[in-house]
Structures are given as structure tokens and as C-alpha cells.
User: Fold this.
Amino acid sequence: MKVGLFIPCYVDQFYPKVGIATLQLLEKFGCEVGYPANQTCCGQPMANSGYEHLTHDCNRLFVQNFADFDYIVGPSGSCVLHIKEHLHTEGEGEAKATHIRQRVYELTEFLTDVLKVENLSAHFPYRVGLHQSCHGQRGLHLSQMSELVAPAFSKPEKLLRMVDGIELVQLTRRDECCGFGGTFCVAEEAVSARMGVDRIDDHIKNGTQVLTGGDMSCLMHLEGIIRRRELPIKVMHIAEILTAN
Assistant:
């Protein structure tokens, strides 16, 4: 299968190792991966701020870049959800946009639902706390919401349990928002930071050595708090752990 590698702009600029780990994972499981070099922001920041009319050029460029792939995969639940729900273009391009919306996947979702991964040759002997980001959990349904009386599941956790030597930390509030919220952390920085501190305190209380998740934007927010408080917690995207030896 031909897979288009969708790398969000903040991953490209600040966390390129996450993009590399994503590529390695996809190729490891036999995917023919292509990376459109002229891809740019998907338009989510403008749309979240109420300026979706300014995303039209982003949409057209995204369609041009990814229309010919069988699947599109990205290591970011929030950006993938934006494309899945909001990618539209005018005229003949709308059919291609529809194809992309139906075939775009967050990385862990793609590994579990499409590739049906059951085994991983990864080794990571640390206590790992999983942050289940809101867009992935409540938008893409990567894991069950704890407030629902329903069978529990977590696609990221399923993959992490395949890693040799790992010890998953059980958090007190396992699916609480970290406070990042995209532009929310700019408009309401005090509330955002306080929410992030609460999430980090939960990890400290339960002995997390490495904090991970599937959305680098949330992890970036939490990592900033960890650095300012000089805490002994390392932050890694889940793709980096799934490729660890």
C-alpha cells in the first residue's frame, strides 16, 4: 500500500525525530511511504480560532499533496481529526478531498485498525505514563472515555503493551485534559498551565519515568512544564518508544 506521511508543522520544526520514528514504523510493517516535500500547515490553528475561511489554500494544497495515496498517516491526533472532519475544496477537487477524509489515520489507529499489528520488536525498560489526548480519545475514539459505562479500550496502550520491558503506569485520572487545547493555551494561558501542572502531578504521584502519547502538541505543553519545574521525567512520542531497541 502507498502511504502518504503527513507530518504536522510543529513536529517538522521542533520534533523531527518523531517524524523519522513514524517513517521507520510504517516501513517496518511493509508500507511504501511517500513524503510530499511541499506540505505545509493543515490549517487547524486558523480554523480553531474562528478563521476557517482562511484555510482554503491549505485545503487545496493538502489535496494536491495527498490525493494519490492509498492512505494518509500522521503522528498527531488533533491534525488528523481536523483533516478528517474539515477538509473540503471547491469544484472537482471535492471528490479527492472526500477520499482523503475517508483514508486519513492517526498513527496508532493505522497500526491497530489497518495493519492489524500484533507483535513489535521493541525494548523499553522504563515506567511509562500514557497521556491520552482529547482529540484522539474523544474525536478519533482511540480509547474509551472513563466517564462512560462501556468496555474499556486503548489503541495506544495496546501497542505499548507489546514493547518488551515496559511498565505502564496507572494514573489516578487517566484521560483528563492536559490544558493545551491549541489556541486555548494562548487565550487562557493561566488555566492551561494549571491544568498541565495537575496532569504532571498525577504522573509524579504514580512514578512515571517517561511520559508518552500520540499527540506531540499536548506533549510539548507538558514538556514545557516539566522543564520549568526541573522534574526528572522524560517526554517521548509513542512512535519513538515503539521503535526503541
In short: The two ends are 26 Å apart (CA to CA). Residues 122 and 243 are 6 Å apart (CA to CA). The first strand starts at residue 2 and ends at 5. The chain has two domains: 2-114, 127-242.
